[in-house]
Amino acid sequence: MMWLKNNYRGIGGSLCVAIVAYFLGNYVPLIGGAVFGILIGIGIGNMKPLKASFATGINFTSKKILQWAVIILGSGLSLRQVYATGAASVLIILVTITAAFVAVIIAGRLLKIDSNLKSLIGVGTAICGGSAIAAVAPIIEADDHDIAYSISTVFLFNIVAVFIFPALGHALGLTQMGFGLFAGTAINDTSSVVAAGYTFGNAAGDYATIVKLTRTIMIVPIALGFVALMIVRKKREAQQVQGSHFHPAKIFPWFILGFLLMSALNTSGILDKAAIAFLKEAGKFLIIMALSAIGLKTDLRKMLATGLKPMLLGFIVWMCVAFTSIVIQHVAGQW
Fold first, then answer.
1. Distance between CA atoms of residues 161 and 183, nearest Å
2. Torsion sign, CA atoms 195, 199, 202, 207
3. Is position 15 within any domain?
């Protein structure tokens, strides 16, 4: 328990923020506890410098507990549900993810946005918002203000989507399944997908939720893709320093294997419904706690100095994903 002895102040501070954020998130689910955690953390952390005794615990929470949270979140994913969505929806998910990353690469380069921030906005928009950002951030060694900015950006467009997507779906004449596929592929946060889907109709909400779960499994190949890129980068850097060696195991995201293991336990039926519900809620809370810690150590001035270009990038990528989802459905005749 040495880790707790050395870090309890920062862990306790993050926990206090997370408890408040958790209840606020349940009260206002469209915003969610993760966003509340970041906002409250930034507010507290920027009022006055935190004591040095809190720093190690806050760092521990923002890194290690974040990884534990990703592992536990795997318990909410059943591969049977992924299979049940069918090949057509998986194809659209893959195409929209590809469209998101193409848009990130092109628009991010034109807007001259930092590589890590660009990557986090891309994965957050393409896959599943905060969970994907949480999984990729440790791999690419992202700064705290990049994590906070990317989650805030994705959150903003989630909220917009909840209000405009159902009306857009009716205007386009989408069927219940068609809108469920649209919402599940073009909205990121689960609560926002559920809100938009069930606003359109019960069948749409049910299908949108399943499609969203299918997108979540893409965390694994995307994370491994970033690992491959980081290995290439680190090897190149090591070659430039005489006598330096780099081992890929140093950056391999072992927590992703834990995510897969928890998913396998769900799929196998070893975990009953009560255990799955508890673990999903626990994972959600740990994400809030880790993001609260990130908020506590985020420099608001540095974040604001980044400007509005990343927000514009988020909008461009989000539009590309939504447009691609609609076009592919139309071409495939799934309306």
1. 9
2. negative
3. no
Q: Work out the pLDDT band at 98, boundaries 50, 70, 90.
A: very high
Angle made by CA atoms 4, 5, 10, in degrees to the nearest 5: 65
Does residue 32 belong to any structural domain of this protein? no
Cβ atoms 144, 42 nearer than 8 A: no
Residue 312 tokens read as: 């514009």
* Mean pLDDT score across all residues of the chain: 85
Q: How confident is the model at residue 245 (pLDDT cuts 50, 70, 90)?
A: low
Q: Give percent helix, percent strand, percent coil of the chain, each to the nearest 5.
A: 85, 0, 15
- Tell me the mean pLDDT in the region 276-296: 90
Mean pLDDT of 27-39: 86
Total domains, the chain: 1
- In angstroms, rounded to a whole number, what is the distance separating the alpha carbons of residues 333 and 335? 6
pLDDT of residue 242: 60
pLDDT bucket at 273, cuts 50 / 70 / 90: confident
Side-chain-facing half-sphere of 129: CA atoms under 13 Å: 28
Closest CA to 137 of 155, 151, 157, 153: 151
pLDDT, tens only, 161-170: 888 999 999 9
217 phi, psi to nearest 5 deg:
-65, -20
Residue 233, both tokens: 């980068």
Query: Residue 259 sits in which domain range?
Result: 78-290+301-332
Is residue 223 in a domain?
yes
pLDDT at position 222 over 60: yes
Task: Give me the half-sphere count of Cα atoms (radius 13 Å) on the Cβ side of residue 286.
Answer: 22
Whether 13 is in a domain gets the answer no
Is the dihedral angle over the CA atoms 128, 133, 134, 136 positive or is it negative? positive
User: How many CA atoms, within 13 angstroms, populate the side-chain half-sphere of residue 212?
Assistant: 28
